[in-house]
Amino acid sequence: MLGNRLLLTDSYKLGHWSMYPRGTTGVYSYFESRAGAKFDSTLFFGLRPILREKLAGEFVTREMIDEASRLAGIHFGTDQVFNKRGWEHILVEHGGRLPVIIKAVPEGTRVPTGNVLMTVENTDPEVPWVTNYVESLLTHVWYPGTVATKSRAVKDMLLEFLELNGDPAGVDFMLHDFGYRGASTDEAAAIGGAAHLVNFMGTDTLIGMAAAVDFYGADLDSLAFSVPATEHSVMTALGPDGEFDVLDDMLTQFPGGILSVVADSFDIYAFVDEVVRRKDDVLKRDGKLVVRPDSITEIHPTPESLVVDLAERLWDGFGGEINEKGFRVLDSHVGLLWGDGIDIDGIVEIVAALHRYGFAANNIVFGMGGGLLQKVNRDTQRF
After folding, report:
1. pLDDT at 143
2. Cα(188)–Cα(226) distance, integer angstroms
3. Phi, psi of 104, deg, nearest 5
4. What is the residue-averaged pLDDT of the chain?
5. How far apart, in Å, are the Cα atoms of 161 and each of 41, 132, 349, 350?
6. Which of 19, 238, 248, 370 ranks highest by number of CB atoms within 10 Å?
7. What is the C-alpha to C-alpha distance for residues 300 and 181, in angstroms, rounded to an integer?
8. Is the dihedral of CA 105, 108, 110, 114 positive or negative?
9. Angle at 71 between CA 67 and CA 73, to 5 degrees
Protein backbone atom coordinates (compact mmCIF):
# COMPACT_ATOMS: atom_id res chain seq x y z
CA MET A 1 0.00 0.00 0.00
CA LEU A 2 2.92 2.37 0.52
CA GLY A 3 3.28 2.65 -3.24
CA ASN A 4 -0.30 3.90 -3.69
CA ARG A 5 -0.05 7.56 -4.69
CA LEU A 6 -3.68 8.22 -3.85
CA LEU A 7 -2.68 7.89 -0.20
CA LEU A 8 -0.09 10.68 -0.48
CA THR A 9 -2.47 13.21 1.00
CA ASP A 10 -4.36 13.99 4.22
CA SER A 11 -7.51 12.06 5.06
CA TYR A 12 -9.77 15.09 4.86
CA LYS A 13 -8.73 15.77 1.26
CA LEU A 14 -10.56 12.65 0.14
CA GLY A 15 -13.94 14.26 0.72
CA HIS A 16 -13.33 17.79 -0.58
CA TRP A 17 -14.50 16.96 -4.10
CA SER A 18 -18.09 17.08 -2.86
CA MET A 19 -17.67 20.26 -0.82
CA TYR A 20 -16.85 22.79 -3.55
CA PRO A 21 -19.81 24.88 -4.81
CA ARG A 22 -21.91 23.14 -7.45
CA GLY A 23 -20.68 23.99 -10.93
CA THR A 24 -17.06 24.61 -9.92
CA THR A 25 -14.78 23.93 -12.88
CA GLY A 26 -11.45 25.30 -11.73
CA VAL A 27 -9.38 25.64 -8.57
CA TYR A 28 -6.25 27.79 -8.61
CA SER A 29 -4.01 27.59 -5.55
CA TYR A 30 -0.67 29.05 -4.54
CA PHE A 31 2.13 28.22 -2.12
CA GLU A 32 4.05 30.78 -0.10
CA SER A 33 6.40 31.31 2.83
CA ARG A 34 4.41 33.70 4.99
CA ALA A 35 5.56 36.86 6.70
CA GLY A 36 6.86 36.15 10.19
CA ALA A 37 9.18 33.36 9.08
CA LYS A 38 12.53 32.98 10.84
CA PHE A 39 14.38 34.23 7.76
CA ASP A 40 13.00 37.14 5.75
CA SER A 41 13.51 35.42 2.41
CA THR A 42 13.17 31.82 1.30
CA LEU A 43 15.52 30.00 -1.04
CA PHE A 44 13.10 27.91 -3.09
CA PHE A 45 14.46 24.42 -3.72
CA GLY A 46 13.41 20.79 -3.93
CA LEU A 47 10.35 20.75 -6.17
CA ARG A 48 11.91 18.70 -8.95
CA PRO A 49 12.30 15.47 -6.94
CA ILE A 50 8.64 15.63 -5.92
CA LEU A 51 7.50 16.18 -9.49
CA ARG A 52 9.68 13.45 -10.92
CA GLU A 53 9.31 10.80 -8.24
CA LYS A 54 5.72 11.36 -7.10
CA LEU A 55 3.62 13.26 -9.64
CA ALA A 56 4.89 12.88 -13.19
CA GLY A 57 3.78 10.13 -15.52
CA GLU A 58 1.06 7.62 -14.62
CA PHE A 59 -0.11 8.82 -11.22
CA VAL A 60 -3.01 6.44 -10.68
CA THR A 61 -3.87 2.88 -11.71
CA ARG A 62 -6.98 0.74 -11.39
CA GLU A 63 -5.35 -1.20 -8.57
CA MET A 64 -4.62 2.03 -6.67
CA ILE A 65 -8.21 3.21 -7.03
CA ASP A 66 -9.65 -0.05 -5.75
CA GLU A 67 -7.19 -0.21 -2.87
CA ALA A 68 -7.72 3.42 -1.84
CA SER A 69 -11.48 3.01 -2.10
CA ARG A 70 -11.39 0.03 0.26
CA LEU A 71 -9.14 1.84 2.74
CA ALA A 72 -11.32 4.96 2.70
CA GLY A 73 -14.48 2.91 3.23
CA ILE A 74 -13.01 1.39 6.37
CA HIS A 75 -11.35 4.65 7.47
CA PHE A 76 -14.54 6.74 7.27
CA GLY A 77 -17.09 3.99 7.80
CA THR A 78 -18.77 4.80 4.46
CA ASP A 79 -18.04 4.48 0.76
CA GLN A 80 -19.44 7.95 0.04
CA VAL A 81 -16.31 9.96 0.92
CA PHE A 82 -13.74 8.64 -1.58
CA ASN A 83 -14.23 9.98 -5.12
CA LYS A 84 -13.90 6.70 -6.98
CA ARG A 85 -15.75 8.00 -10.04
CA GLY A 86 -13.50 11.05 -10.27
CA TRP A 87 -10.32 9.00 -10.18
CA GLU A 88 -11.76 6.62 -12.78
CA HIS A 89 -12.35 9.66 -15.00
CA ILE A 90 -8.67 10.62 -14.66
CA LEU A 91 -7.64 7.04 -15.38
CA VAL A 92 -9.77 6.76 -18.53
CA GLU A 93 -9.52 10.29 -19.93
CA HIS A 94 -5.91 11.07 -19.03
CA GLY A 95 -4.28 7.66 -18.90
CA GLY A 96 -3.84 8.06 -15.16
CA ARG A 97 -1.83 11.26 -15.50
CA LEU A 98 -2.76 14.21 -13.31
CA PRO A 99 -4.61 16.97 -15.21
CA VAL A 100 -2.84 19.82 -13.39
CA ILE A 101 -0.33 22.46 -14.34
CA ILE A 102 2.28 23.57 -11.82
CA LYS A 103 4.26 26.76 -12.19
CA ALA A 104 7.10 27.80 -9.89
CA VAL A 105 9.92 30.29 -9.53
CA PRO A 106 13.24 28.82 -10.68
CA GLU A 107 14.74 26.60 -8.00
CA GLY A 108 17.56 28.36 -6.21
CA THR A 109 15.75 31.71 -6.31
CA ARG A 110 15.64 33.72 -3.09
CA VAL A 111 12.13 35.09 -2.65
CA PRO A 112 11.09 37.56 0.08
CA THR A 113 8.49 36.06 2.39
CA GLY A 114 4.87 36.76 1.52
CA ASN A 115 5.35 36.10 -2.18
CA VAL A 116 4.15 33.24 -4.36
CA LEU A 117 6.61 30.39 -4.80
CA MET A 118 4.41 27.97 -6.76
CA THR A 119 0.93 27.79 -8.28
CA VAL A 120 -1.24 24.79 -9.09
CA GLU A 121 -4.41 24.60 -11.20
CA ASN A 122 -6.47 21.89 -12.79
CA THR A 123 -6.69 21.60 -16.59
CA ASP A 124 -9.80 19.41 -16.75
CA PRO A 125 -13.03 21.17 -15.63
CA GLU A 126 -14.50 17.80 -14.63
CA VAL A 127 -12.00 17.39 -11.76
CA PRO A 128 -11.33 20.80 -10.17
CA TRP A 129 -10.76 19.12 -6.79
CA VAL A 130 -7.54 17.50 -8.00
CA THR A 131 -5.66 20.81 -7.55
CA ASN A 132 -5.75 20.68 -3.79
CA TYR A 133 -5.68 16.89 -3.54
CA VAL A 134 -1.95 17.17 -4.29
CA GLU A 135 -1.43 20.10 -1.91
CA SER A 136 -0.26 17.96 0.99
CA LEU A 137 2.37 16.21 -1.13
CA LEU A 138 3.62 19.39 -2.79
CA THR A 139 3.90 21.05 0.60
CA HIS A 140 6.80 18.69 1.33
CA VAL A 141 8.93 21.17 -0.60
CA TRP A 142 9.04 23.04 2.70
CA TYR A 143 11.85 20.75 3.86
CA PRO A 144 14.54 21.24 1.21
CA GLY A 145 13.51 24.88 0.92
CA THR A 146 14.06 25.41 4.64
CA VAL A 147 17.41 23.60 4.63
CA ALA A 148 18.58 25.68 1.66
CA THR A 149 17.32 28.84 3.34
CA LYS A 150 19.08 28.10 6.63
CA SER A 151 22.29 27.14 4.85
CA ARG A 152 22.18 30.38 2.89
CA ALA A 153 21.54 32.41 6.03
CA VAL A 154 24.71 30.95 7.55
CA LYS A 155 26.63 31.90 4.41
CA ASP A 156 25.28 35.45 4.49
CA MET A 157 26.26 35.79 8.15
CA LEU A 158 29.77 34.43 7.54
CA LEU A 159 30.22 36.81 4.64
CA GLU A 160 29.29 39.72 6.87
CA PHE A 161 32.02 38.79 9.33
CA LEU A 162 34.53 38.07 6.57
CA GLU A 163 33.92 41.49 5.07
CA LEU A 164 34.81 42.94 8.48
CA ASN A 165 37.77 40.80 9.45
CA GLY A 166 38.86 38.30 6.81
CA ASP A 167 38.89 37.00 3.26
CA PRO A 168 35.48 36.10 1.76
CA ALA A 169 37.12 33.93 -0.92
CA GLY A 170 37.00 30.76 1.15
CA VAL A 171 33.41 30.99 2.34
CA ASP A 172 32.16 28.14 0.14
CA PHE A 173 33.93 25.64 2.41
CA MET A 174 33.15 27.18 5.79
CA LEU A 175 29.98 25.17 6.52
CA HIS A 176 30.22 21.41 6.12
CA ASP A 177 27.16 19.14 6.08
CA PHE A 178 27.48 16.57 8.90
CA GLY A 179 23.79 15.71 8.75
CA TYR A 180 23.44 12.18 7.37
CA ARG A 181 23.30 10.46 10.76
CA GLY A 182 20.98 13.13 12.13
CA ALA A 183 18.42 12.94 9.34
CA SER A 184 15.20 11.00 9.80
CA THR A 185 15.49 9.00 6.56
CA ASP A 186 17.81 8.46 3.62
CA GLU A 187 15.36 10.42 1.46
CA ALA A 188 15.56 13.40 3.81
CA ALA A 189 19.35 13.23 3.92
CA ALA A 190 19.47 13.08 0.13
CA ILE A 191 17.26 16.03 -0.66
CA GLY A 192 18.37 18.03 2.39
CA GLY A 193 22.00 17.34 1.56
CA ALA A 194 21.44 18.52 -2.00
CA ALA A 195 19.76 21.67 -0.70
CA HIS A 196 22.89 22.57 1.29
CA LEU A 197 24.98 22.23 -1.87
CA VAL A 198 23.11 25.14 -3.43
CA ASN A 199 25.19 27.33 -1.12
CA PHE A 200 28.34 25.46 -0.02
CA MET A 201 30.80 22.94 -1.45
CA GLY A 202 31.60 20.95 1.69
CA THR A 203 29.69 17.84 2.75
CA ASP A 204 29.99 14.43 4.35
CA THR A 205 26.46 13.51 3.22
CA LEU A 206 27.32 11.41 0.18
CA ILE A 207 23.68 10.72 -0.67
CA GLY A 208 23.12 14.47 -1.00
CA MET A 209 25.68 14.52 -3.79
CA ALA A 210 23.86 11.63 -5.46
CA ALA A 211 20.56 13.52 -5.30
CA ALA A 212 22.13 16.65 -6.77
CA VAL A 213 23.47 14.62 -9.68
CA ASP A 214 20.35 12.51 -10.27
CA PHE A 215 17.71 15.22 -9.92
CA TYR A 216 19.56 18.33 -11.06
CA GLY A 217 22.32 17.10 -13.33
CA ALA A 218 25.02 18.56 -11.09
CA ASP A 219 28.61 18.20 -12.25
CA LEU A 220 30.16 15.65 -9.91
CA ASP A 221 33.67 16.89 -10.71
CA SER A 222 32.98 20.26 -9.09
CA LEU A 223 30.02 19.55 -6.82
CA ALA A 224 31.28 18.93 -3.28
CA PHE A 225 34.37 17.89 -1.39
CA SER A 226 35.55 16.49 1.94
CA VAL A 227 38.84 15.71 3.70
CA PRO A 228 40.40 12.85 5.69
CA ALA A 229 39.17 13.15 9.27
CA THR A 230 39.48 11.05 12.42
CA GLU A 231 36.77 10.15 14.89
CA HIS A 232 36.95 9.21 18.56
CA SER A 233 37.21 5.48 17.83
CA VAL A 234 40.42 6.22 15.91
CA MET A 235 41.95 8.60 18.43
CA THR A 236 41.20 6.29 21.41
CA ALA A 237 42.26 3.04 19.74
CA LEU A 238 45.57 2.92 21.65
CA GLY A 239 44.17 4.22 24.93
CA PRO A 240 44.98 7.47 26.76
CA ASP A 241 48.74 6.90 26.52
CA GLY A 242 48.60 6.22 22.81
CA GLU A 243 46.60 9.21 21.57
CA PHE A 244 49.66 11.11 20.45
CA ASP A 245 51.03 8.01 18.70
CA VAL A 246 47.83 8.06 16.69
CA LEU A 247 48.40 11.75 15.96
CA ASP A 248 51.94 11.02 14.77
CA ASP A 249 50.64 8.24 12.56
CA MET A 250 48.09 10.59 11.01
CA LEU A 251 50.75 13.19 10.29
CA THR A 252 52.82 10.49 8.59
CA GLN A 253 49.96 8.96 6.62
CA PHE A 254 48.69 12.30 5.37
CA PRO A 255 51.71 14.49 4.56
CA GLY A 256 49.67 16.89 2.45
CA GLY A 257 46.24 18.44 2.13
CA ILE A 258 43.73 19.15 4.86
CA LEU A 259 43.64 16.69 7.76
CA SER A 260 40.98 17.03 10.45
CA VAL A 261 41.72 15.51 13.86
CA VAL A 262 39.22 15.25 16.71
CA ALA A 263 41.03 16.54 19.79
CA ASP A 264 38.85 16.10 22.90
CA SER A 265 39.00 12.36 23.51
CA PHE A 266 40.88 12.77 26.80
CA ASP A 267 42.14 16.32 27.35
CA ILE A 268 41.63 18.98 24.69
CA TYR A 269 44.21 21.32 26.22
CA ALA A 270 46.92 18.67 26.42
CA PHE A 271 46.16 17.67 22.85
CA VAL A 272 46.58 21.20 21.48
CA ASP A 273 49.77 21.61 23.51
CA GLU A 274 51.08 18.42 21.90
CA VAL A 275 50.21 19.77 18.47
CA VAL A 276 52.30 22.83 19.31
CA ARG A 277 55.19 20.63 20.47
CA ARG A 278 55.02 18.89 17.09
CA LYS A 279 55.26 22.23 15.32
CA ASP A 280 58.12 21.13 13.09
CA ASP A 281 56.20 18.06 11.91
CA VAL A 282 53.06 20.10 11.31
CA LEU A 283 54.95 22.74 9.35
CA LYS A 284 56.52 20.04 7.17
CA ARG A 285 53.08 19.11 5.88
CA ASP A 286 51.96 20.60 2.60
CA GLY A 287 48.53 21.40 3.97
CA LYS A 288 46.49 22.30 7.04
CA LEU A 289 46.01 20.36 10.25
CA VAL A 290 42.52 21.16 11.52
CA VAL A 291 42.00 20.73 15.26
CA ARG A 292 38.45 19.73 16.13
CA PRO A 293 37.23 20.35 19.66
CA ASP A 294 34.06 18.29 19.97
CA SER A 295 32.77 19.17 23.42
CA ILE A 296 32.82 21.93 26.00
CA THR A 297 34.83 21.71 29.24
CA GLU A 298 34.41 22.81 32.84
CA ILE A 299 36.96 25.54 32.24
CA HIS A 300 35.27 26.71 29.06
CA PRO A 301 31.56 25.85 29.32
CA THR A 302 30.59 27.38 25.97
CA PRO A 303 31.84 26.54 22.47
CA GLU A 304 32.81 30.16 21.83
CA SER A 305 34.96 30.47 24.96
CA LEU A 306 36.75 27.19 24.17
CA VAL A 307 37.35 28.13 20.54
CA VAL A 308 38.91 31.45 21.53
CA ASP A 309 41.20 29.72 24.03
CA LEU A 310 42.36 27.19 21.46
CA ALA A 311 42.87 29.89 18.85
CA GLU A 312 45.10 31.73 21.32
CA ARG A 313 47.09 28.55 22.01
CA LEU A 314 47.60 27.90 18.31
CA TRP A 315 48.55 31.55 17.77
CA ASP A 316 51.13 31.37 20.56
CA GLY A 317 52.52 28.15 19.12
CA PHE A 318 52.41 28.73 15.38
CA GLY A 319 51.92 32.43 14.94
CA GLY A 320 50.44 33.77 11.74
CA GLU A 321 49.84 37.16 10.24
CA ILE A 322 47.84 40.29 10.80
CA ASN A 323 45.72 40.80 7.71
CA GLU A 324 45.00 44.12 6.03
CA LYS A 325 41.90 44.52 8.19
CA GLY A 326 43.93 44.24 11.39
CA PHE A 327 42.83 40.75 12.42
CA ARG A 328 44.89 37.69 13.26
CA VAL A 329 45.05 34.80 10.79
CA LEU A 330 46.68 31.62 12.03
CA ASP A 331 49.59 30.10 10.15
CA SER A 332 48.18 28.30 7.11
CA HIS A 333 49.28 24.93 8.52
CA VAL A 334 46.72 24.98 11.36
CA GLY A 335 43.05 25.79 11.86
CA LEU A 336 39.95 24.94 13.90
CA LEU A 337 36.65 23.19 13.28
CA TRP A 338 33.55 23.12 15.45
CA GLY A 339 30.94 20.51 14.59
CA ASP A 340 29.18 19.47 17.78
CA GLY A 341 25.54 20.42 18.36
CA ILE A 342 25.82 23.63 16.39
CA ASP A 343 23.12 25.73 14.77
CA ILE A 344 23.20 29.14 13.11
CA ASP A 345 22.91 30.97 16.44
CA GLY A 346 25.87 29.04 17.83
CA ILE A 347 27.95 29.82 14.77
CA VAL A 348 27.22 33.51 15.26
CA GLU A 349 28.39 33.29 18.88
CA ILE A 350 31.66 31.64 17.89
CA VAL A 351 32.63 33.96 15.03
CA ALA A 352 31.56 36.99 17.08
CA ALA A 353 33.78 35.87 19.96
CA LEU A 354 36.72 35.34 17.62
CA HIS A 355 36.10 38.81 16.20
CA ARG A 356 36.15 40.36 19.67
CA TYR A 357 39.52 38.77 20.37
CA GLY A 358 41.00 39.91 17.09
CA PHE A 359 40.76 36.72 15.05
CA ALA A 360 39.46 36.59 11.49
CA ALA A 361 36.57 34.24 10.80
CA ASN A 362 38.82 32.40 8.33
CA ASN A 363 40.49 30.61 11.26
CA ILE A 364 37.55 28.26 11.72
CA VAL A 365 35.14 26.15 9.72
CA PHE A 366 31.93 24.54 10.93
CA GLY A 367 30.18 21.21 10.60
CA MET A 368 26.41 21.23 11.12
CA GLY A 369 24.47 17.99 11.34
CA GLY A 370 21.05 17.72 12.92
CA GLY A 371 20.91 21.50 13.15
CA LEU A 372 21.06 21.67 9.36
CA LEU A 373 19.05 18.68 8.13
CA GLN A 374 16.73 17.92 11.04
CA LYS A 375 16.20 20.89 13.35
CA VAL A 376 13.68 22.51 11.00
CA ASN A 377 9.94 22.24 10.47
CA ARG A 378 7.24 23.68 8.25
CA ASP A 379 6.79 26.62 10.61
CA THR A 380 10.44 27.70 10.43
CA GLN A 381 9.56 29.59 7.24
CA ARG A 382 5.79 29.49 7.82
CA PHE A 383 5.01 27.62 4.59
Report:
1. 98
2. 20
3. -150, 155
4. 98
5. 20, 44, 12, 11
6. 370
7. 27
8. positive
9. 115
